[in-house]
TrEMBL record:
The keyword Nucleotide-binding applies. It holds the Pfam family LRR_R13L1-DRL21. This is Rx N-terminal domain-containing protein. It comes from the Eukaryota. The keyword Acyltransferase does not apply. Residues 13-98 form the Disease resistance N-terminal domain.
């Protein structure tokens, strides 16, 4: 009987595919029509062998599985056509009612019947095709044959589909009227979806099959939804305010229920009556427990989460009845398993379509033996590809963890296994590519047990590409014996973090493919690595015993090194790193030198980026300078005792484009010859001695300099001086010049290319000069200048498109802005003395006006009633915050 129903359902789906609306939709949207034709061909091919499959499934589990997969594929095709049907309906409604267009744009922001774009439609159709083609191909291997010379045909009953083709439309007028009434109502203003609006409309949508309310601000779902007896898909994801559901037990046809990212803590007990439910998504919900008897949903295929309860009706045994689960499943609250036998009744070993499994113990596990017994019973099917075990409280892992028969596992994550004294034998998992081990507090040694039984024919971890260890406070050594020396032949990335007692990072492996190594928080580690021939990237952080990089590093092709928080590091020898592309050194207080010898460096022909932060003992660069012909970026930060910049920068750094010097208090002079002519961006911050000699920088000779930022100096009173800055400048930021009283007009007048000017935290600045001569200026920001009282009339250039005035508490009025015909965005923040907009009003070009913490001005611009409302009413977007 089940296959007779499936045959009938095939016929319904095939008729829907041939309907005028679906065909016209594909043509009108320029979706590949041949994909639809191929889908029909594949479905007809599969339907011919249904009778034979019905008989053979009794004795063949392979045929039974094939039928289950076919049924799933046909249901997916029907869901796909539902979405197409609604798209077609929306287009027809638009054509029939002109006012619909305006309301649809406002309303569909939260009432979305179908959100898929055309590209997604084609992709989904291709996936459906692949599934069906694969199933049809398997019919030969299964020996399935056609019992009749023709395809069966059944009459279609009204109401089986949400959209049909012919003139005798059943329920269509009522549906259309209800949707139009809802969308065209005055209440549908795009701000909120009222439950009463929805309940009023749902009474008329009696044949609705697909309802997407994702992203709406519903707080409750009206009871009337339970009257949509034909509803098959209900999507409520991203309804962040939705906290409860009504009784849904009458929705016997419901197949898909998506509650992702809602606030629902409990599901209705009536959920057990949704006997056709195949998909239940509760990702990101604060769900406290599963509804009772969820095992009654025997057709369920997708269940992302299962929360184990202590009562029989919510226990892990309920999973045993869900034979068709597939995809991913996260089982949480495993500490609530009362009897290990209950875990066995979940029958995970029999669920061969589960690809991803995650086991989590969320609470205390006081009985390690009980936890181990439970874990033994949770043995999954050998088809699992991704396995995660979190919070396991056993002392050892059961034997199935690491068995070579789990040959399809690609990714394995073990975390918070705080009672385990050794790692499980994982080296014989033939397909394992990603392995993460974290929170094994009691592991002291990683040795031969980790690799499993080694043979000459099989290398341990033969497919592993990424390996990470983290949070193992007692781990002291990593040992390999003779049989494991050839382990990790494909390993590309290795990360070891927060293992403070580890004294040796790597055993004697060859690691022929390793390109990335990260060592972090290993305080006792003095030698981070042996010779690794292909290593390209090295990150070392928090290794306080490390004094220098090992000599083996010269034999490597390292391209990138980052060293951070290594308190004992004294030298990073650039002369040993000829192929280095990028070097970053952060917070190494003992660093004294960048060269292992006194002689000048050889050319660093590959170095593109050099950053040195927080190295107070670094006094100078290597004698003779940095010969780095391709260096484009140099950052020097908080090197408090650095006396000078690298020698001969103009000639030795001919490609330098970006230079940042911050907190280098003792640097006094610009290098002889000045900065390289290629420099495009320059920032000088908190370097009082260097800034004092700014007229010797020679910035006028830098034809490519476009961005300049000067900040945090106590001695500058006037800036910029005449002829200091080049005319090529497009962005100028003046920040934190606490004693600056004047913005020098003469130093700005020739900056005809300047497009951005930012002035901030200049606490002594009282006024601004005229800026109208800056004819390219498009962005002006003035902030945290507490003494500015006014801005000059006609002082702003007409090219300005963005203006921000922020935290100028003494500013009493705004300048005339009417002439700023390009102004698009105007923000004023924290200027409480400003009471009104300029008398002439604001330019018509303005699209966004934001007023924050200006109480009097905000009140005067209040909609309809403010005295300045006529001056701002033409602006599309107005934001006012008292």
């Amino acid at each position: 009987m089940a296959e007779a129903f499936l045959s009938a359902f095939f016929n319904v789906v095939l008729e829907r595919m041939a309907s005028r609306q679906v065909v016209n939709f594909f043509r009108g949207q320029k979706v590949n029509n041949r994909l639809l034709e191929r889908l029909g061909t594949a479905m007809r091919s599969a339907s011919r062998v249904l009778d034979d499959a019905e008989e053979k499934q009794i004795t063949s589990t392979a045929v039974w599985d094939w039928l289950a997969e076919l049924k799933d594929a046909v249901y997916k095709a029907d869901d796909f056509l539902d979405a197409i049907a609604y798209k077609a309906l929306r287009q027809e409604l638009k054509a029939e009612d002109q006012t619909f267009i305006c309301h649809m744009q406002r309303f569909l922001s939260f009432f979305n019947l179908c959100k898929k774009g055309l590209g997604e439609i084609e992709e989904e159709l291709k996936v459906l095709l692949q599934d069906l083609d694969r199933l049809v191909d398997r019919t030969v291997a299964l020996g399935l044959i056609s019992r009749t010379g023709k395809e069966p045909s059944w009459p279609k009953t009204p109401g089986e589909t949400s959209l049909v083709d012919e003139r005798g439309v059943y329920g269509r007028d009522d549906d259309k009227e209800a949707i139009l009434k809802l969308l065209l109502s005055d209440d549908a203003n795009g701000q909120s979806l009222d439950a009463s609006m929805l309940s009023c409309s749902t009474r008329k949508l009696k044949h609705l099959r697909y309802l997407d309310l994702s992203g709406s601000d519903l707080v409750t779902l009206p009871e009337e939804v339970s009257a949509l007896l034909n509803l098959q898909t209900l999507i409520l994801q991203l309804c962040y305010r939705l906290a409860s559901l009504p009784d849904l037990g009458n929705l016997k046809q419901l197949r898909r229920l998506n509650l992702e990212r809602t606030r629902i803590e409990r599901l209705p007990e009536s959920l057990e009556r949704l006997i056709n439910l195949r998909y239940l998504n509760i990702i990101g919900t604060p769900l406290k427990e599963m509804p009772p008897h969820i095992g009654q949903l025997t057709k369920l295929q997708t269940l992302n989460y299962f929360l184990v309860g202590r009562q029989s009706e919510t226990s892990i045994k309920e999973l045993g009845k869900l034979r068709h689960l597939r995809g991913d499943l996260h089982i949480r609250n495993l500490q609530n398993v009362v009897n290990a036998r209950d875990a066995g009744e979940a029958n995970l070993k029999g669920k061969k379509h589960l690809d991803e499994l995650r086991f989590t113990w969320d609470g205390d596990t006081h009985d390690p033996q009980h936890v181990t017994s439970t874990m033994e019973k949770l043995e999954p099917n050998r088809n699992v590809k991704d396995l995660q075990i979190d919070g396991y409280g056993g002392i050892r892992f059961p034997e199935w963890v690491g068995e070579s028969s789990f040959s399809k596992i690609v990714s394995l994550e073990l975390s918070r296994c705080t009672n385990c004294t050794s790692l499980p034998p994982l080296g014989q998992l033939a397909s394992l590519e990603v392995l993460s081990i974290e929170g094994f507090d009691k592991v002291v040694t990683v040795g031969s047990e980790f690799y499993g039984h080694c043979t000459a024919m099989k290398k341990p971890f033969e497919s592993l590409k990424t390996l990470s260890f983290r949070g193992m406070p007692d781990w002291r050594e990593w040992i390999s014996d003779k049989g494991s020396r050839e382990a990790f032949p494909l390993l590309e990335g290795l990360s070891i973090k927060e293992c403070p007692n580890l004294t040796k990072a790597l055993p004697g492996h060859n690691l022929p493919r390793l390109t990335s190594l990260i060592i972090e928080g290993c305080e006792q580690l003095a030698t981070p690595l042996p010779r690794i021939p292909r290593l390209l990237s090295l990150d070392v952080s928090g290794c306080h015993s490390l004094e220098s990089l090992p000599g083996e590093i010269v034999q490597m092709d390292l391209e990138g090194i980052e060293i951070k928080d290594c308190a004992s590091l004294k030298c990073v020898a650039l002369d040993l790193l000829p192929k280095l592309n990028s070097l970053s050194i952060f917070n190494c207080p003992d660093l004294e030198s960048l060269c292992a010898h006194e002689r000048p460096l050889n050319d660093l022909t590959s170095l593109h980026s050099l950053s040195i932060w927080g190295c107070p003992k670094l006094v100078s660069f290597p004698k003779g300078g940095l010969p780095a012909p391709v260096l484009t970026r140099l950052e020097l930060n908080h090197c408090y005792n650095l006396k000078q910049l690298p020698e001969s920068m103009h000639s030795l750094l001919p490609s330098l484009e970006s230079l940042e010097i911050r907190g280098c208090l003792e640097v006094e002079l610009c290098p002889e010859g000045g900065f390289p002519s290629t420099l495009q961006s320059l920032e000088i911050r908190n370097c009082n001695k260097l800034i004092a000699g700014r007229m010797q920088w020679g910035l006028q000779t830098l034809p490519s300099l476009s961005h300049f930022k000067i900040s945090w100096d106590e001695n500058v009173e006037s800036f910029p001086e005449e002829m200091l800055l080049p005319s090529s400048l497009t962005s100028l930021t003046i920040y934190g010049l606490e004693h600056q009283k004047y913005l020098d007009y003469k130093g700005l007048q020739h900056l005809t290319s300047l497009s951005t000017l930012v002035i901030s935290y200049c606490s002594m600045l009282k006024s601004l000069p005229r800026l109208h001569h800056l004819t390219s200026l498009t962005r002006l920001e003035i902030s945290n200048c507490p003494l500015i009282e006014s801005m000059l009339e006609e002082g702003l250039p007409s090219s300005l498109s963005f203006l921000r005035i922020d935290s100028c508490p003494m500013l009493k009025s705004l300048p005339r802005l009417q002439h700023l015909t390009s102004l698009r965005e105007f923000t004023i923040w924290g200027c409480p003395l400003i009471e009104s907009m300029p008398e002439e009003g604001l330019p018509s070009s303005l699209s966004t006006l934001s007023i924050y913490h200006c109480p009097t001005l905000g009140e005067s611009c209040e909609k309809e009633i403010g005295k300045d409302w006529p001056k701002v009413s033409h602006i599309p977007h107005i934001r006012i915050c008292p």
